[in-house]
Design a protein that fits this description.
8-stranded parallel barrel, 4-stranded antiparallel sheet, 26 strands
């Protein structure tokens, strides 16, 4: 595990690098274009450095099913009836051993171009995160790049019975039909749908993989001997780790038995000890199991901090509920991946969320600085991308479509140096806040003390709309500090003094200042000497126009 906070930047090369600002709804690859591996250049790396990014999550790299044809390159064409959108879902994997041909300048050299991207990313000082999709794959999975030593999925399966040595779950005697696609016997769908007639809301474009769990007979696990799928997935992970991938974001990890992760993560780390694993897990009851037993390094914090901050920002909950978010997961709070956006969630600036990116800044400050947990930025978030385009399959839903050939207009403008003034303003604030956070050891490595409880009866601090906490680190070597007078970055020699940082967020963005009580508990917890600060004193916090106040003290 990493000792200090890190920042992940999630981007889909297909969309991020597409500078076409006038994409047609439901347009083709030819009409709308696509970003490439080569689109991720030095200019992009420079931009990410200004945000303190340490890891780049390249989403949609491994080859998935698409309506576009690459038959001339020896790649089998996919049936369009089992593809969502024209581009297809990045999570309907068609070949675990290949990359998407449309991302390459030269399709024949696509893997070499990906390997070059990994090398460029490392040279620029970033680590590479890649999706691993273990639970399901495309209906028409077919690997044309499979290594000589590997076997493809489904070969040797007994289609008439459940067997832990099957790769798929079969529904004997039943047919799955949609459009021109027919499948007999039908296979179970990716979202644990064991019927031959999945709905349009099911993941009908995918097939669920068999890890030895008999779902039709009480979910009984058959893990000894080790199921065939386990070995195959371990091989796939090692294949990508050998190419320099530093971390895997494991899609819908909780739909795969924890027993697999317990075995597989150890196997991979025996060969590649520095590789990290991030789990997409939404059930808090399973957090400890997937962390301690499964061996994951980090888990998504979606149903806790993300949901809470979203509802607070929308005015539906009290800011004091943030305290419960970290208290409920106290032992693993630093291992939760915090975020305000990702490909599954509605953009902060969308009409379905806050309608304005600046309204999300108080949530940004809390999510980024509450603890040592890593933080993730979704591409375009820093310039207020709204996701309100009519892109095709997804419709206008406040998300940037992962299923269509499209662009993110604000990102396209940024890459062309034509950002709107409001986009420039937001980006400047992001850069300033992330520079402070990632340059201050109290934030990256310090302990957290929640001050909310000490201010419940404070008439000068609104605990329903404001949240306050402190961070402290001993012998802080940070050089860059967030100066309250005008919110300007200063260079200052701290001379290895202990430093205390107090952060307050005003979700109403209506207060100019507030006075915060400092409890004696904090002084005793951190052994802070009396003098500059004393227990039961009030510290004045001056909010900037975006609702953030930061006070820094050298002890």
């Amino acid at each position: 595990m990493m000792d200090k906070k890190f920042i992940i930047y999630q981007l889909l090369p297909r969309i991020f690098g597409n500078t076409n600002g006038n994409c047609l709804p439901d347009g083709t690859l030819h009409t709308n274009g696509t970003g490439k591996f080569s689109s991720i250049n030095e200019s992009v790396f420079d931009h990410l450095h200004t945000l303190g990014v340490t890891h780049i999550w390249y989403t949609g790299v491994i080859e998935h099913a698409t309506k576009e044809s690459f038959e001339e390159y020896g790649i089998r064409r996919d049936n369009p009836s089992v593809i969502k959108g024209r581009a297809g879902s990045p999570y309907a994997i068609k070949d675990y051993y290949d990359v998407n041909p449309y991302l390459a300048d030269s399709v024949e050299n696509r893997m070499a171009e990906f390997e070059d991207l990994v090398q460029r990313t490392h040279t620029a000082g970033f680590k590479v995160v890649l999706d691993f999709v273990p639970n399901h794959l495309a209906r028409e999975y077919n690997s044309d790049s499979i290594p000589y030593w590997a076997k493809d999925f489904g070969i040797g399966d007994n289609e008439n019975i459940f067997s832990p040595d099957n790769n798929y779950y079969y529904l004997p005697g039943e047919m799955f039909s949609i459009g021109t696609y027919h499948e007999r016997p039908a296979k179970a769908t990716g979202n644990d749908c064991f019927t031959a007639n999945p709905s349009v809301n099911d993941w009908y474009e995918t097939v669920k993989l068999n890890y030895g769990v008999d779902y039709m007979n009480g979910r009984k696990g058959h893990f000894f001997p080790i199921p065939k799928t386990w070995y195959m997935m371990n091989d796939i992970l090692c294949f990508w780790a050998s190419k320099g991938v530093d971390a895997f974001r494991c899609d819908m990890a909780e739909l795969v038995p924890v027993e697999f992760w317990e075995w597989c993560i150890k196997e991979v780390k025996n060969k590649y000890p520095k590789v990290q694993f991030i789990a997409e897990v939404y059930n808090p009851a399973e957090y400890s199991s997937y962390m301690y037993r499964g061996g994951f390094d980090y888990l998504y914090d979606k149903v806790g901090l993300y949901d809470t901050l979203k509802f607070i920002s929308q005015g539906h909950r009290s800011a004091s509920e943030i305290t419960g978010c970290w208290q409920r997961i106290n032992d693993i709070q630093n291992n939760m991946l915090n975020f305000l956006e990702n490909h599954d969630e509605q953009r902060v600036a969308s009409d379905f969320n806050l309608g304005n990116a600046f309204k999300g800044i108080p949530s940004l400050a809390v999510s980024l600085m509450l603890n040592k947990a890593p933080f993730m930025i979704y591409f375009g978030q820093e310039v207020g991308e709204s996701g309100m385009q009519e892109e095709g399959f997804s419709g206008r839903d406040g998300r940037t479509s992962i299923f269509d050939w499209c662009s993110a207009p604000s990102v396209a403008r940024m890459l062309k140096g034509k950002s709107y003034e409001s986009e420039k303003e937001l980006l400047e604030y992001y850069q300033k806040l992330f520079t402070f956070a990632m340059g201050n050891n109290a934030v990256t490595s310090g302990e957290t003390f929640d001050l909310q409880y000490a201010n419940y009866h404070n008439d000068l601090f609104d605990t329903d709309r404001c949240f306050v906490f402190a961070r402290k680190y001993s012998h802080d070597n940070s050089a860059e500090n967030f100066h309250r007078g005008g919110n300007e970055l200063l260079t200052e020699n701290t001379d290895k003094k202990d430093k205390l940082v107090i952060v307050a967020a005003d979700f109403s963005q209506s207060y100019n200042s507030a006075k915060v009580n400092l409890p004696d508990d904090m002084f005793r917890f951190w052994n802070i000497p009396y003098g500059q600060l004393n227990p039961f004193e009030q510290v004045e916090m001056k909010f900037d126009k975006y609702g953030v106040a930061i006070a820094e003290f050298t002890l």
